[in-house]
Amino acid sequence: MNRSELLASLAACVGERHVLTAPTDIAPYAVDWRRKYVGQAAAVVSPGSTAEVAAVLQLATAHRIPVVTQGGNTGMSGGATPDGTGTQIVLSTRRLNRIRQTDALNDTIEVEAGAVLEAVQVAASEVGRLFPLALAAQGSCTIGGNLATNAGGTAVLRYGNARDLTLGLEVVTPDGRIWNGLRGLRKDNTGYDLKQLYIGSEGTLGVITAAVLKLFPPPAARRTAMLTLPSIDNAVQLLNRVRADLGPALTAFEVISAACVPVLQRHFPEMRWPFETLVPVVALIEMSDHESEQHARDTLSFVLEQALEDEIATDGVIGESVAQSRALWALREHLSEAQAKEGPHIKHDISVPISRVAAFVDAAVKHVQLGFPGARMAWFGHLGDGNLHFNVLAPVGTDALAFCAGQGDVNRLVHDLVHAHSGSISAEHGLGQLRRDENARYKDGVELALMQGLKQALDPLGLMNPGKVLRPLSAG
Amino acid sequence: MNRSELLASLAACVGERHVLTAPTDIAPYAVDWRRKYVGQAAAVVSPGSTAEVAAVLQLATAHRIPVVTQGGNTGMSGGATPDGTGTQIVLSTRRLNRIRQTDALNDTIEVEAGAVLEAVQVAASEVGRLFPLALAAQGSCTIGGNLATNAGGTAVLRYGNARDLTLGLEVVTPDGRIWNGLRGLRKDNTGYDLKQLYIGSEGTLGVITAAVLKLFPPPAARRTAMLTLPSIDNAVQLLNRVRADLGPALTAFEVISAACVPVLQRHFPEMRWPFETLVPVVALIEMSDHESEQHARDTLSFVLEQALEDEIATDGVIGESVAQSRALWALREHLSEAQAKEGPHIKHDISVPISRVAAFVDAAVKHVQLGFPGARMAWFGHLGDGNLHFNVLAPVGTDALAFCAGQGDVNRLVHDLVHAHSGSISAEHGLGQLRRDENARYKDGVELALMQGLKQALDPLGLMNPGKVLRPLSAG
Question: Across residues A243-271, what is the average pLDDT?
Fold first, then answer.
């Protein structure tokens, strides 16, 4: 099948205007969000229904055409970017964006894969419910992408990651069969839990076309506090204590290291940093309360006072209003953008057991400093999940691009330490192409073999997002 | 390999005294807890370590010996009982019962598969933590069995089922490789989430030998209330309201139908039923509070008063002490035993979306009454999860055994209605052999084919608990 036959066949599946073929039209779909990977595609096809997805995949299977599924294209690991051969097609889910139904009494919502996360949050709030998945890209990322990468974000501590928020899936298999697993049940033990395989598989096993997601009654109040701490060890102690005091009312426990602060202040000078002294660690705590604003305030004040009294924390502020709470959150949320404005840097998205976070941070800071004198360890992240974005910035005043040329060595050093601390080298960003080979270095051999066996069973022709997550079988 | 060679080889793997061969020794392992299924086994082998499990499975693979893994043998669906051929061996996990380590700061515990659930609860409490999985069989069921069947129980509403409580697994594959997936991480996106496949697969894909489980800080107080309600529809309304008022502090929402009460009173006359009038539905609500006993009491009193004021509930009591709360729970927990003492009856373990529970119950009661006049619908269960044990008892004074001879027809009627209400015919008991063929009737064909594909990929020789969950491939 030559290219013009392919394009005609794709047009027959989805309609001509939903097949992009011009290089300028294809280009935005062929580069990842971080602009680390630039690929090519034979076409970009946008099905408007599950049946059209099935038709596209039947065609792909019949003619052995590799398919890269793409949602909002906001991934951090190049998982939705086609390779450079120009033989792959991009299957965009953007037209599959309906909110199919909400069921407030069952606390569920059924949405199509291309629905933007924020649109799902809004649809939930319209029926008086909360869809708690929340992350920086929520204005453009899609639910399908969230599920394919098992997205995390800022509310995992209380509500879980994308996997935990999913009750049912609709999936099209590589050969174009439609599996309707759109159940809205809290308990169902009638066989293997297939949805779990597709969630987090980054488009390598099939195409997720719709999902049934969990909703929650919204809390009566949300309150945020920010505390300064002498060390990461104190932060872990504080987390332990706050978990006991607040129980499930604790909805977020984030940390920010000292090196992040001047970078934030340089690039967002209009944002007010609430502390005058630079301290090693700042914790951002959010609680949700089903009782009242007053109860939330009193509870969080108590926690803060106790932490100061016991000298776990050295200072602290409580957001006295929704606006103040948002302002505190905004500081946390702009860290990544501030680092991007600072220049190229080396990112790590790691997790370790919470009991080993302090030892890991101490070891990583020490070893990176030894190996790369002057490098700034501007780490921050979701301490409540044991997940840190352990980012390494070039020494002040040096050539950041040149520094990043050595990122393989920094990755190796940091990830070897993560591995030594029983951690994960990709906590919430997935493997995509960025971490595929590193993962093969750290992963148990039996586990890799089992993964390859599942890939072979579910995508025997290797057409689903080839080269992502796992090396293609032919390449060993 | 003849039987004596087999026994000698098994003895070489685990030591002679850990291979049971006498029919009287084997018998207890060859019958299920409900005594519905009586099988035979060539031997019962009890490995003392993961390496010994691997040795047994290598042997099994080399000589094509089917293996039935068994924990506490408390399953409800015959999933751990060997068939009648006498060719299968039972692999008992009872000796694999170590608590390997607890990590209070990470809120995790690593245990072997044969550890009894109650022992895990105790080990958690010894480090000041809660392991929340709780069910009637907890004194004898094992964690391995809980995971193999994705056990539910009475705290799912707040803490999730066994799947949700698991962070890592150690599994031996059918050919005797050991997969060490014992991670204690809240976030890890480095490939397919293999543990999810083994959880709930009822021993048909491999042998779970150990797990890392989530722990929680225990609440400061737990309070229980019991309310009488005019209808199941009111119960759903009350659940909806209590979820909003209590948020995650709501730890259980159970319901008991009127038909359960006289049966309970007949067989446990010493237990005090707190209401004088027989009402259609009783709800048992438990809340956990991280603040104080007083706060728990005030909150629950408020909920109860509001429900009475708004005429959702007609009467109610609050457990004023731990002893009183336990007494209220004991009523709920003795329903199953009371029904067993009443005589043979027809069990269903179903779930439907919570928004459809009332319609389902009304339809099921009506149709069973029409088809089987006088039959008692003594349903009860976990309304918060949409999960009811919709049990049907013979008409009073009739031959219960004769009535149960028609259970296929009752199953069909009830399960057709479950299916029509988008529900599951096995919410928390698994399929085992009891529901295997019924499941094939209701399950999506694509889903069944995908399940068979995974079985084929992970257990190509079909040696792992053959005939459970799925029909053996050779039998079509």
Answer: 97
How do beta strands B99-103 and B108-112 pair?
A: antiparallel
| Residue pair A356/A387 in contact by the 8 Å Cβ criterion | no
Per-10-residue mean pLDDT, chain B, length 476: 93 98 98 95 98 98 98 97 97 98 98 98 98 96 98 95 98 98 98 98 98 98 96 98 96 98 97 94 97 95 95 95 94 96 96 98 98 97 98 96 95 98 97 97 97 98 98 66
SS3 state of residue A100 = strand
Q: From B469, which residue of chain A is nearest by alpha-carbon distance?
A: A191
Average pLDDT rounded to a whole number, residues A376-383: 98
- Three-state secondary structure call for residue B145: helix
Task: Indicate yes or no: CB of B184 within 8 angstroms of CB of A353.
Answer: yes
pLDDT the model gives residue B117: 98
Q: Chain A contacts of B58, Cβ < 8 Å?
A: none
CA closest to B172 among chain A residues: A446
- The residue of chain A nearest to residue B167, with distances taken between CA atoms, is A353
Dist. CA B141–CA B195, nearest whole Å: 20
User: How confident is the model at residue A320, as a pLDDT?
Assistant: 87
**Within a 10 A sphere around the Cβ of B154, how many other Cβ atoms?**
24
Please tell me the predicted confidence (pLDDT) of residue B473. Answer: 73
Give the β-pairing of B43-45 and A345-346: unpaired
Average pLDDT, chain A: 96
Q: Which residue has the tokens 């299920």?
A: B32
Provide the CB-side half-sphere exposure for B185 (13 A, CA): 27
Give the residue from A182, A189, A470 with the most B CB atoms within 10 Å of its CB, the best one to mutate: A189
Stretch (H or E) spanning B449: helix B445-458
Which residues in chain B have Cβ-Cβ distances shorter than 8 Å to A197?
192-193, 196-197, 454
Residues of A in contact with B424 (CB under 8 A): 183, 185, 187-190
Per the CB < 8 A criterion, the answer to whether B41 and B111 are in contact is no
- pLDDT at residue A152 above 90? yes
How close is the nearest chain A Cα to the Cα of B311, in Å?
19
Q: Is A247 close to B245, i.e. CB distance below 8 A?
A: no
pLDDT of residue A473: 73
Query: Residue A450: its chain B contacts at CB < 8 A?
Result: 173, 179, 192, 194, 458
Alpha-carbon distances of A15 from A18, A46, A48, A174, B325, rounded to whole Å: 6, 9, 9, 21, 64
Q: Using alpha carbons only, how large is chain A's radius of gyration in Å?
A: 23
pLDDT of residue A474: 63
- Of the candidates A156, A200, A240, the beta carbon closest to that of B186 is on A156
- A:B CB pairs within 8 Å: 278
Q: Which residue from B187, B352, B443 is facing A152, i.e. has the nearest CB?
A: B187
Residue type, B17: R
Alpha helices in A356-406 (DSSP H): 357-371, 400-404
